[in-house]
Amino acid sequence: MLAMTKKWIFSFVLFLLVTISSNAQSIFGKWHSFDEETNKVESVIEIYQKNGKAYAKIIEITDPTRRDATCLKCKGKKKDKPILGMDILSGLTKDDDEWNGGTILDPKNGKEYKCYIKLLDNNTLKLRGYIGFSLIGRTALWKRADL
Asked: Of the candidates 79, 39, 82, 84, which has an alpha carbon nearest to the alpha carbon of residue 61?
């Protein structure tokens, strides 16, 4: 009986460790985005999975004066909609160690860009938005918010 209990406990602990490890190496979760000029946390973005693709929405804006901001320069359905709660990353699919094939919206200028994201380490996400070729674009690093 004691040997069976030890096996069960060992199996359970091993399962937990594998689960925690795999979650820590995932793009999914909450991330801090930073203001390019001040390098201060600008927002919290949640990356989630839907139908096998990655999406992200803004779930917190740190500047209290911007919390009710709308996307004035956006086009289509997102025009004049609240930025808080808005999906800004859409339709990325996993390709080896990066997610690509989707778009990212910059709510400040209302423009959508092709993009890819890649986990650099458990707590750093590289995001590259670009027009045409990935050589012509901008890179941002997000830090995991739910540590």
From this structure: 84
Residue partners of 70: CB distance under 8 A and separation at least 6: 80, 81, 82, 83
For residue 70, the enclosing domain spans 27-144
Query: Is residue 85 assigned to a domain?
Result: yes
CATH number of the domain bearing residue 43: 2.40.128.520
Number of H helices, E strands in the chain: 1, 8
How do the pLDDT tens digits run along the chain, 147 residues long?
Answer: 555 555 544 444 334 333 344 445 899 999 999 998 999 999 999 999 999 999 999 999 999 999 999 999 999 999 999 999 999 999 999 999 999 999 999 999 999 999 999 999 999 999 999 998 778 889 999 999 975
**Distance from C-alpha of 50 to C-alpha of 91, rounded to nearest angstrom:** 9
Does the residue 18 lie in any domain? Answer: no
pTM, entire model: 0.80
